[in-house]
Amino acid sequence: MRALVTTGGGDAAPADVGEPDPAPGEAVVAVHAAGLNRGDLTVAASLPAGSRLGWDVAGVVERAADDGSGPPAGARVVGLAGRDGFAERVAIPAGHLAALPDTVPDTTGAALPVAGLTALYALRHAGWLLGRTVLVTGAGGGVGRVAVQLAAAAGARVIARVGTAGRGDGLAKLGAAAVGLYGDTIAEPVDVLLDSVGGAALEQAWTSVAEDGVVVSYGNTTREPLRLPLDWGRLRPGVSLRYLHLFQETRRQPVGRDLATLVGLVTQGRLDPQVALTTPWSDPAPAWDALRDRKVNGKAVLRLAL
Amino acid sequence: MRALVTTGGGDAAPADVGEPDPAPGEAVVAVHAAGLNRGDLTVAASLPAGSRLGWDVAGVVERAADDGSGPPAGARVVGLAGRDGFAERVAIPAGHLAALPDTVPDTTGAALPVAGLTALYALRHAGWLLGRTVLVTGAGGGVGRVAVQLAAAAGARVIARVGTAGRGDGLAKLGAAAVGLYGDTIAEPVDVLLDSVGGAALEQAWTSVAEDGVVVSYGNTTREPLRLPLDWGRLRPGVSLRYLHLFQETRRQPVGRDLATLVGLVTQGRLDPQVALTTPWSDPAPAWDALRDRKVNGKAVLRLAL
Q1: Model pTM greater than 0.80?
Q2: Which of A91, A223, B12, B277 has a CB 3.0–4.6 Å from the CB of A26, allowing a cystine?
Q3: Taking CB atoms and an 8 Å limit, are B242 and A244 in contact across chains?
């Protein structure tokens, strides 16, 4: 079968690979669409040429798990693969799959797993959100756009911050009460800060966090060491800071149920993963480059030839 | 009556002040000994001349609280005052007092409140300690020495780190399994880091913290902005960082019960607040200077003339 593999220098292209060999409890999924994440670019740059890629897939179960768990053969599903999802077929643990209703397109489903679960787990760490104020930095990207919607759906007042004005397009419609740029004044105390930017944006956002506030970081796009103001603690007593690493969380969270929650919100019209770019997987370079250059206001998805 | 008041420039001296005027629920305590904290030096440097000082007191209840709560008149007590405890008499909420048995000297009791409660609340945030590894930086100071003992009493393996070799004297006897200097290699994963130093010591200690570890900061003696390594999050997924501010905690913790816990540990021989310097309050300068210069391996206590 065909799969996207790294070609060195951080890029990827289709190549011939072996068929998946499902372990006990794994289903084989025929992939119809695969979501691209910034994490794919990061690992592609560090892996040797010929390495497999891909976590986000939507498709149809070709062979159910041998233990009878999970969706049956023929079911449309969304799933979180183990870095081998950019392929015609992939074996995925049944517990990392959720059914995809006919009303939800493959491309929408494929945009959900990494971005949706990251936003969901980050907000879950923050706990109670109804009536609280949530500040989301990096709000223009794939995770940020989902986080804005999930926080709003949980009853929070959402303040969105982006790097350039165009990155904020559509965020108000997704539920952000205020949209601005890094450095813009935040006049109200923030109960929860979701940060994926790091650097000066995080340092500045920190000064807006209220006593006992919760800061969850899930990225560091500036690639700078963490730095907080001199009086970081005394000025913000009780604030906790935590880094969320998705693939640590997925080891202990009910991934399948959480994917089903995200799919359910999509069917209710309360969540749109914002697929902003769709491209055939035979030529992934345009999506790859656009994502790297932060030109995708949402998610980029690869369509597999059917 | 007489009380220590600031004289400008960060120092303090006895002066005449008015008698305490207890609010409902407050007892009047005749102070026999008063513990000195680095926080006293910090606020003395920022307050106008003539300001009152002092949180840690031990003495005798002269007048019980009007609502009948707390210890009766004549009882020996330890208490957390509201920055007016360096005085012959002070009004303290009954809920901020605990009985002091005859076996515990005034000077020992007076050393407990701020240092003991800070260490107790910092460790309480860390949660379960039995069988875990706790790293304490600034272990040579007043809070650090109590934290080492409380963590050991809770079943933890304690690694103590100090700035100079002499600061570590006695820490092994207090329960530290390993005593070293900042920068010394820490070969084992650390479940809980208690930091009061900040700067490079915190940045280095961070790299020893295990996945899902808990970092509680309760001071920043280096007076540097917080800085963590570039991959602070990805290398240490799930780690939480929290700043503990004692006077935020005392608003929501059962201070009197917690003081009684600390006193109980003292009477059981499991906690020694390490009174390293005792001086008459009529001449506080030697204690003041020694604490400022980090020459007190433990607590400095002022004795009031009786």
Answers
A1: yes
A2: A91
A3: no
